Request: fold
Amino acid sequence: MKFLNGGWLVKDGYSVKYAANVYEAKIEPKKLTLYCPFGSPIYNAGMTLDGGILTIEVTSPRPNIITTRLMNFKTDRSRCPGFRLNESDPDVRIEQTDEAWTFTSGRTTLRVAKGDTIDFQYLFDGKEIARSGWRAKALITDPEGSLHVSEQLDLGVGEKIYGLGERFTNFVKNGQSVEIWNRDGGTGTEQAYKNVPFYMSNRNYGLFVQSPGDVEFEIGSEKVSRVQFSLEDQEMTYSVIGGESMKDILNSYTDLTGKAPLVPEWSYGLWLSTSFTTDYDADTVMKFVDGMAERDIPLSVFHFDCRWMKELEWCNFEWDGDKFPDPEGLLAKLHERGIKVCVWINPYIGQKSPLFDEGVKGGYFIKRADGQVWQWDRWQAGMAIVDFTNPEAVEWYQGKLRHLMDQGVDCFKTDFGERIPTEGVVYHDGSDPMLMHNYYTQLYNKAVYDVIAEVRGADQAILFARSATVGGQRFPVHWGGDNSSNYPSMAESLRAGLSFGMSGFGYWSHDIAGFEDKPTPDLYKRWTQFGLLSSHSRYHGSGEYKVPWLYGEEAVEVAREFTKLKRRLVPYLVRMSHETHETGVPMMRAMVLEFQDDPTCEDIDTQYMLGDDVLVAPIFNEEGTARFYVPDAGGAHAGEAWKDLLSGQEYEPGRWYTQTYDYHTLPVLARPGSDPLGE
Reply:
């Protein structure tokens, strides 16, 4: 939220109260409480009247994480949903000198200065990593009279900010305004399906705002030398996470919010979808499966999108009998061929669905303030939304999924979860609707993931999810949403995936060849290369089938070659998934995450590392030209050349390269000293 009018003035209609200094402090076991007057320091008893104070509580949920709670008025939080955090009992040291109070957890310290100016300095191993100083902590009243709590951290020279969820804008977030509010906005705008109030700085700190609400970030976009974050509420809690590196910070952050689990080995293979609005039936499905087999393109998962159910009845969780007279038999045929089955679902129940009346009778839907079921006509006519705060509704919904798994379904694509209303809405458990907007996806994906783990076993549980928030990494896999069939959209998809990985999520996929429109054969082949060198790989579209033979014989060859290349990489990918599970470092990672000490890597968003040892540079143009950078591997292999897995060509480190590639090649380089193909 922007509230200033230049460097000195405040926008019309806004009022701002800044915390001046620390007037008094209270030290308790593992807790430091600070009382900060607004406006100016208190010099006499008369100045304690009519001014108000900002109460600041400093605690630590885990080593190297320092949590600060800024409070105006203490309010009842019992109806506020919150992220599930894995708190431990770290050793904390609180000290006081004539100059400052210090609060230390692990190797991270907060130093709060005494005196007439407020000054919070964060250090790791004694080195400053972040700072909040003069006119940083504030209460802001907007023109509607709503109160916002705001904080600012200094943005240093050369400092760069990454993360904040799956964002399709510039990979480096400096200069951007970012609103943490899940929306179904496609991949071509500043809106995002997966908003995460967590960022990392190349100064080796992470910042996590512990609210599922509408947190707003101004990253050098109002005060150009500061990162500002604010929340409409009486209080805001945030954590500063110190570490040796951004990888170290991700490890600590995911220790707190949850690690990504291991996913089944079969999920790394190729997923083929029927696409969204295309006509298909049992014969179409088998023609696609047979076509892939005849062309020697290994298939791991077949995905049935929306129209496995009857139109206007999404979701009824019943196979359309006209198209699928024997669903159990069809799924058995797919299983006989070694193919897993995924079906599309969402948390919405159209009024025409046989389940609508059942859900109304059971009280399973979100309601309006007058007790009636909340409905609207966007997406499905008269649709209702399942209320996952109601345990009986969760069991009811899971029961429908259990029946599908009894029929042979292996996993679910959990679509939507972003269009969650906030006005005039009542939840079963009384949750605040504004805070439920982003948090809803967590309950939705958890309900589906849990029932798969129950029926199929935890080692076989996997989703294909679109929406997410903090902690959603515990319910993988996520895909990038509705992209378009062009090269700019392919590039924005990669940027989003890299930002997503910088936000604590270990696995990521995208619609190969684009969701909207029909791709050219050229784009289809180039996106196939990229898609099959991602952690998870799925052909999917809107109104167009995405089977390779529709795009020419060479597209078939490319699909075959890169599907088989990925199969050869599966042992390596499984090994990397253990690293993701244990450390929180994503499978697909930005160059800066792997090579943080190389300044050239700080801005690169057109190539990435697939695990520790494979550098991938997708091609984003019809000319087949790739421009890519080869870093120095460092360590025992410093100065050594990288080797292309496809051509065998070697590349000296520390240089940019520009080369042209045919459709059977692209830069896929192995780190010196590594053997990702196990040869």
